[in-house]
Write a structure and sequence with these properties.
29% helix; 5-stranded mixed β-sheet; two-stranded parallel ribbon; alpha/beta; Ribosomal Protein S5, domain 2; 110 residues
Length: 110
């Protein structure tokens, strides 16, 4: 039995068509709350949206792929890097936090 408590790290890069304007990095959510935090960072000129996921829930790469592809299909954002620090959040909570970040970008409040 594997009792490893290390985090699994996953990386994704998805194409986007809607460039984000310059902004300061900002956080959505709090990892200490028992679910996750999401850090949004500008990556001017990259032409894509990249994701780095650190998660305590090992073996769920297919679910992460589906959630992030769905997000990217809906948002279409590019020139953006999103770091996710997860401690077992459900896909619905991941989607909620990502949408909260998009709302902050659209409001220009980050």
């Amino acid at each position: 039995m594997n009792t490893s408590t290390s985090l699994e790290t996953l990386h994704f890069q998805l194409p986007g068509h809607q460039a984000t304007p310059p902004f300061r990095p900002f956080l959505v959510g709090v990892v200490g709350s028992g679910n996750l935090e999401v850090l949004f960072e500008a990556r001017p000129g990259s032409g894509h949206c990249s994701f780095a996921v650190q998660t305590s829930a090992r073996g769920f790469e297919a679910i992460w792929t589906a959630v992030l592809q769905d997000f990217q299909e809906r948002s279409g954002l590019s020139d953006l890097h999103i770091s996710i620090h997860d401690m077992g959040a459900t896909p619905a909570i991941v989607s909620l936090r990502l949408q909260q970040g998009v709302a902050q970008l659209k409001e220009g409040t980050p």
